[in-house]
Structures are given as C-alpha cells and as structure tokens.
Specification:
Layout: E1 9-14, H1 19-35, E2 40-44, H2 58-64, E3 71-74, E4 89-95, H3 100-109, E5 115-120, H4 130-139, H5 144-161, E6 164-166, E7 169-172, E8 175-178, H6 180-186, E9 195-201, H7 205-208, H8 213-229, E10 233-237, E11 251-252, H9 263-266, E12 268-273, H10 277-286, E13 290-292, H11 299-303, H12 307-316
Parallel strand pairs: 1-2, 1-4, 2-3, 4-5, 5-6, 9-10, 9-12, 10-11, 12-13
Antiparallel strand pairs: 7-8
Helix pairs in contact: 1-6, 4-5
C-alpha cells in the first residue's frame, strides 16, 4: 500500500549497553524529528549491559527517547527485527560501530534497498584506534586473538559502511569542539542547586584485575583526604558494575543512571577520577572542575590511550596527577 505524505523512517537500533548510549541515540532521533516531519519507528535490536551491571531496559528507552507523537518504539523478535515496509526509508543506527552480523541480516532481508548507516559514540573508546580498542577489550577479559579480530573488524566496518558519524566531539582544524545537539541531550535533566562537594567517580578496576581492592581503597582515601583538606565534603559515585560496599566508609551516591544525567553529580563543585568518559563529559558538557587522579597501579590506563584520545582529554581535562599533587585553586 502506498504512503501519502512524508515517507516514514524505520530506524534499526543496535549496540546499546548503557543508558548513556540511549542518550546518544536519543539526540540523533531528536534532530531527525526536528528536521523531518515523517513518522519514525525505532526497532530495538536487543539491549545489553556492561560487566554484569543491570542491562538497559525498554523502559529506559521510553524514558530517555524524545517525547513525540511521531516516534514509535517496538521490540520485535526474530524476523521482525529486520522487516521493513516497502514505503519506509531505512536507517541502521549503531552505537560505537556497525555490527557486521546485524548489518548483514538487514541487507539480506532488504536487498537492493538503501540502508543509511549512522554511528553514534560509544564513549571515549570511539575516539581511539583499533589498538586502543583491542587493549580495552583485553582489559574486559577478552582473549588476545578475539580482541584483535574484533577491533580490526570494527575499524573496517566504520571505515566502509558508515554514512554519518553522530559524535559528541568533533575534531576541527581549530581543535576539539562539542557537538551541541548531543551535549544538550545530556543537559535535559534539571540540575540541583550547587553543592560544595567533591565526587570521586570510581571504575571497576578491581573487578577487571587492574588494581587490588586494598590498593584502590587506599588510593581513594588519599583523594578523600586532599578534598577534605581543601574544604570540600567528599562522596563516591560507584560504577554500576562494582560492589558499592567497598566504599562504605565514605558518603556513597549510588545510581544506575549515567553520572552525566545525575543532578547530584552535575551540581557538585568538583569531580575526580581516573581517565573516563564520564569525567570527560562532565568537564566538557557542564564545565565542572574535573581532575584526573592516577597512581602507580593506574598509570597503564593513560599509557594505552591513542593520540586522538590524548588530544581530546587534554582539551577538557588537566594532566593526570597523584593525590598528593591535587591543587583545587580555591
């Protein structure tokens, strides 16, 4: 049956493993709805989680996607994940990089039809190279051969298949710049009144085997002492994949939403942590004073960064220091 009016758009979404990924996708959908009057159907191609953290749910998509009568989300199974009406325009919206298998399934189900491929950020890893991506998967427990093959395949897919890169950060001749439509999506939750608090963003380095539990708690205790000496109250924001009881001696701000969407974090005076996507985004999007704090056990994290990642971090964050080197400029 022919369609009158603007041709509808069917968006196949894949690669969502965190609520931050939903925000990236939501920003693209919001821009699409603003530029095109056509109705949009988002096909949820499956949701995941990270390192045992609670997976993203369909309810998270409904909560974080734009509220627009033209936008419909569906979660089909089987062949429904690749089916499309003949009068629809097709977009494959991938987080981080196009999945080879999802793309092949879409192509097989819709031969001879154009499928535009849009890729959003996955996080800081989106600005690395295949080597930094391989090293990240190795830290997450992947084998050497599997990590290398996946990193090389992902780099090739991004180079050969992508029609549009929808990124938070843009590398221009004048330096790195924020892509405001994406940044604005993170700014949508209302911010609380500013609080004279320093928040340390932890990461699952203990779970990943990068540092021991004792050494990591000692590291955070040193950061806490420096913050308290500067007159801040101190709190810890555990990563969702961690055991939060590790930080029971401090004020803990638990949460399953990304730190960039949590008003308790965005209203703080200072944020600290090792090199991470959340620390970068809080500094760049909200202009919060942010500090990279390292140590002997965590030095390898900065050593494994790609040149583009280093340049991006150096644009918005000061160099990494040990807790004893923290100077807040109050």
């Amino acid at each position: 049956m022919s369609h009158t009016g603007p041709r509808p758009l069917r968006v196949f979404l894949s690669g969502v493993r965190s609520q931050a990924h939903v925000v990236y996708a939501a920003s693209w959908l919001r821009a699409q709805l603003a530029a095109d009057p056509a109705p949009v159907t988002v096909v949820d191609g499956g949701l995941g989680g990270f390192l045992g953290a609670a997976p993203v749910t369909p309810g998270d998509l409904d909560r974080l996607f734009p509220s627009d009568p033209r936008l419909t989300r569906i979660s089909p199974t089987g062949a429904g994940r690749v089916w499309a009406s003949p009068d629809e325009r097709l977009v494959y919206l991938a987080i981080g990089a196009p999945g080879i298998k999802p793309w092949l399934r879409l192509r097989a189900a819709n031969p001879a039809r154009r499928i535009a491929v849009v890729v959003t950020d996955e996080g800081l890893g989106s600005y690395g190279d295949w080597r930094s991506r391989r090293d990240a998967w190795r830290r997450e427990g992947g084998g050497a051969v599997w990590s290398t093959a996946r990193a090389v395949a992902g780099a090739a897919a991004k180079r050969l298949l992508v029609d549009e890169r929808w990124a938070l950060y843009t590398d221009t001749p004048a330096g790195w710049r924020l892509h405001e439509p994406v940044a604005d999506e993170f700014r949508r939750p209302a911010r609380s009144a500013p609080v004279d608090r320093a928040v340390f963003l932890t990461q699952p380095w203990v779970e990943l085997g990068t540092v021991t539990d004792v050494a990591y708690r000692r590291h955070i205790a040193e950061v806490a002492a420096a913050c308290t000496a500067a007159g801040y109250t101190f709190a810890v924001r555990p990563h969702p994949a961690e055991d939060a009881s590790r930080y029971a001696q401090w004020d803990v701000l638990p949460g399953t939403v990304p730190a960039e969407l949590d008003p308790r974090i965005t209203s703080s005076a200072v944020v600290l942590g090792a090199t991470s996507t959340a620390l970068l985004n809080l500094a760049a999007i909200f202009r919060l004073p942010a500090y990279r704090v390292g140590g002997k056990e965590l030095a390898v994290l900065d050593e494994l960064l790609s040149p583009r990642q280093r340049a991006l971090l150096d644009t918005y964050l000061p160099p990494t220091v040990e807790p004893s080197g923290l100077e807040f400029g109050r």
